[in-house]
């Protein structure tokens, strides 16, 4: 008598069960992904805030040493940025040793420029403290004030210094503005009439895309509109960007070493994260605070603290926060 063998029963998922499991996994991913993205965005914003804090502390240490704040210089080729001058006070003395402040940053005329050999290595060095981790751009610029054919480039910055409110004549850095920094400035804490906790010294900007175009871009927030050689005070900046524009430049934040207005400065004339481009006239103009953070920008105040300022902040309050010399004490940002 032979015993028959039966195959053991093997359980398996049915097609319906598989579809249900896949659907559940999809729902969980849909629920968790925004939370993960929000956590990453918060971490990047915190990292950016720490960088801004370092810059504020370095500025204080500079003032403690010289009893004044650094100035920007006297002309565009020799206008070393505020950032370049505070390097030793942020544990970056070795990098500042690469800068020859007695030589210009670049030489040349017209559109034929070359980074001065004494400052080339410094200009090409990326400084993490001056960069926001939320900005996806590489931040290497080859189209402005350098010899790209020779392989020259600048490393950019997301950190910019406040030149004032941008009201009246304060858009032109060649003369004294109502802010802490302008060409030839030598201001000190005593000049901050509105109080250090009400005065902005640093903010963020977006890195440009290293391009030039005569066509209006679809997304203009990281562009600078060159509106020609004329002067106007207290303009509607958005209207200027819709008027005659010679070129659209992607050189915002193009060189941390340079104190040029569109490279490493801003004013509080336009609101944070304005939905139009910055405007340049006579190489000066209205350059705003901008970031890739949702809802606002990080700023450093003159007391060394860092604050996240909403893009919906009252505009007059924001403008007052850029001014230090009018005695009009603004409210809390």
Automatic annotation (TrEMBL):
State the taxonomy lineage: Bacteria, Pseudomonadati, Planctomycetota, Planctomycetia, Pirellulales
| Organism of derivation | Neorhodopirellula pilleata
Looking up InterPro entries in the UniProt record yields: DUF1559, N_methyl_site, Pilin-like, Pre_pil_HX9DG_C
**Protein name (Swiss-Prot/TrEMBL):** DUF1559 domain-containing protein
**Alphabetical list of SUPFAM superfamilies matching this protein:** Pili subunits
Q: Which domain of life is it from?
A: Bacteria
Residues in DUF1559 domain copies: 37-316
Give the matching PANTHER family. GENERAL SECRETION PATHWAY PROTEIN G, TYPE II SECRETION SYSTEM PROTEIN H
């Amino acid at each position: 008598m032979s015993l028959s063998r039966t195959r053991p029963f093997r359980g398996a998922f049915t097609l319906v069960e598989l579809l249900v499991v896949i659907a559940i996994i999809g729902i969980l991913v849909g629920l968790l992904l925004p939370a993960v993205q929000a956590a990453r965005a918060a971490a990047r914003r915190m990292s950016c805030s720490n960088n801004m804090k370092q810059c504020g502390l370095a500025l204080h240490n500079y003032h403690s040493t010289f009893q004044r704040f650094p100035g920007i210089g006297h002309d565009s080729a020799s206008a070393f940025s505020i950032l370049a001058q505070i390097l030793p006070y942020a544990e970056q003395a070795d990098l500042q040793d690469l800068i020859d402040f007695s030589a210009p940053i670049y030489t040349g005329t017209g559109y034929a420029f070359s980074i001065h050999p004494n400052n080339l290595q410094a200009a090409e060095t990326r400084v993490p403290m001056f960069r926001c981790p939320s900005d996806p751009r590489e931040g290497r610029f080859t189209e402005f004030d350098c010899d790209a054919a020779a392989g020259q480039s600048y490393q950019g910055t997301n950190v910019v210094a406040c030149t004032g409110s941008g009201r009246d004549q304060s858009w032109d850095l060649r003369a004294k503005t109502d802010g802490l920094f302008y060409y030839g400035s030598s201001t000190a804490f005593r000049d901050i009439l509105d109080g250090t906790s009400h005065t902005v010294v640093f903010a963020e900007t977006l890195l440009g895309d290293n391009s030039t175009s005569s066509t209006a871009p679809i997304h203009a927030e990281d562009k600078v509109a060159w509106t020609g050689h004329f002067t106007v005070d207290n303009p509607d900046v958005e209207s200027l960007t819709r008027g005659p524009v010679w070129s659209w430049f992607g050189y915002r934040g193009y060189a941390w070493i340079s104190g040029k207005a569109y490279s490493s400065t801003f004013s509080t004339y336009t609101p944070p994260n304005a939905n139009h481009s910055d405007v340049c006239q006579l190489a000066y103009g209205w350059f705003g605070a901008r970031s890739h953070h949702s809802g606002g920008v990080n700023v450093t105040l003159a007391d060394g603290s860092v604050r996240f300022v909403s893009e919906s902040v009252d505009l007059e309050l924001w403008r007052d926060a850029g001014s230090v010399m009018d005695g009009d004490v603004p409210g809390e940002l």
